[in-house]
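User: Just a sanity check before I run the rest of the batch. Below are the structure tokens for the first item. I only need the designed sequence back.
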């Protein structure tokens, strides 16, 4: 049986995947206007913005896409939840069970598939790649945009007809007809697909991929990184130190910001500690297994692929704007960026820093996975290849330097 082994993609393959996704057909054209200028939006983009920001499209009213994807937080958020790691739904005391991922740069993610690439010995390994959400269950931006409307934990509409009816009777119904035709509301299923398409078109505008950070200016040659940021960048790339670039990739030969998306769109099992604040986790038998529970995953996998090897795996997020998108991890366990970096380098040298101690003083490592899946956790790649008593791959001042570099990835 084929077992998934996480591997680093070549920069050329990542670029090819990005090209296919970014050239998709959901947008009318490549918008190059200033993102703050609404007058410059096409009608479809403007309709997408209206849908994205409409608090009348939940049941009960009060929650919009923008409630959990706030532009002031790089299109993350939690709708005012008192539990930072998960969002509040449209109904009081209804919460999600995962941290809201950023919508920024999401357009570059390819559709979900198992991508094969030969390793150094010519053996083709298949790696799950792409999709939207932490588990890749939506193939496209449009499909992703449609799902929260009908999720009881989120916008809680009973069906697509309820969403379409609210739009038909809303303030921008004429705009919807102008984009999709006089009979745009006649067929509910078609209209609902068009809702997703319009939102996806809006999410392809430059405000969702500004490439306006200090690091982007550095790539273009119009800014310089200071000494600490430069050191952090080198540690980020160093395969014997941070090795962050193994998953959060960039093309080291390119000065084009679009070649530095800081994700390879793959999945990894990191063994992030259990977040006790998430209501679902009150049940000790509940575990969020991530990718292996994606609907239809077995049929999508190559023959003889061990789908259970994907239990505990979640999508590698972009690091663009990471300094303003706390909390971190699929379950929102980490509240600071420094803690995330520190976890990566001390998880295996000092597990007692992160996991509870059980009977007999034994540290309950990887406690957010059932025991049978803890072997899926990545313990081979740098910096996870350490043992208790060995020094972490990064010292404290080096962690600080990496964090300083990550702060240069925030768009203005």
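Assistant: Here's the designed sequence for the first item:
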């Amino acid at each position: 049986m084929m077992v998934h082994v996480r591997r680093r993609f070549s920069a050329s393959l990542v670029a090819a995947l990005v090209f296919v996704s970014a050239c998709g057909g959901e947008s009318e054209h490549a918008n190059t206007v200033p993102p703050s200028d609404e007058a410059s939006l096409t009608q479809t983009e403007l309709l997408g913005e209206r849908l994205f920001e409409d608090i009348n499209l939940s049941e009960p009213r009060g929650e919009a896409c923008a409630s959990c994807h706030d532009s002031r937080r790089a299109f993350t958020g939690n709708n005012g939840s008192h539990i930072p790691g998960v969002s509040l739904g449209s109904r009081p005391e209804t919460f999600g069970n995962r941290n809201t991922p950023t919508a920024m740069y999401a357009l570059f993610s390819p559709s979900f598939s198992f991508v094969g690439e030969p390793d150094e010995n010519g053996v083709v390994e298949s790696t799950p790649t792409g999709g939207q959400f932490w588990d890749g269950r939506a193939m496209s931006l449009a499909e992703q945009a449609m799902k929260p409307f009908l999720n009881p934990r989120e916008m809680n509409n009973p069906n697509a007809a309820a969403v379409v009816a609210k739009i038909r009777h809303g303030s921008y119904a004429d705009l919807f007809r102008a984009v999709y035709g006089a009979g745009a509301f006649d067929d509910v299923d078609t209209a609902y697909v068009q809702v997703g398409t319009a939102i996806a078109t809006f999410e392809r505008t430059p405000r969702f991929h500004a490439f306006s950070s200090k690091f982007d200016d550095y790539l273009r040659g119009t800014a310089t990184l200071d000494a600490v940021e430069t050191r952090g960048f080198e540690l980020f790339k160093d395969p014997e130190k941070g090795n962050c670039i193994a998953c959060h990739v960039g093309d080291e030969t390119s000065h084009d910001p679009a070649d530095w998306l800081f994700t390879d769109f793959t999945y990894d099992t990191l063994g992030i500690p259990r977040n006790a604040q998430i209501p679902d986790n009150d049940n000790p038998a509940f575990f969020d297994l991530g990718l292996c529970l994606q609907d239809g995953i077995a049929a999508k996998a190559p023959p003889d692929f061990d789908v259970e090897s994907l239990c505990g795996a979640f999508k590698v997020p972009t690091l663009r704007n990471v300094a303003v998108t706390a909390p971190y991890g699929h379950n929102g366990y980490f509240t600071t960026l420094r803690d995330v970096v520190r976890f990566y380098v001390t998880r295996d040298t000092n597990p007692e820093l992160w996991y509870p101690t059980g009977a007999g003083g034994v540290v309950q490592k990887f406690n957010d996975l059932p025991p049978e899946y803890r072997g899926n956790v990545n313990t081979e790649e740098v910096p996870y290849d350490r043992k208790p008593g060995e020094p972490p791959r990064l010292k404290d001042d080096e962690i600080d330097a990496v964090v300083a570099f990550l702060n240069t990835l925030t768009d203005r």
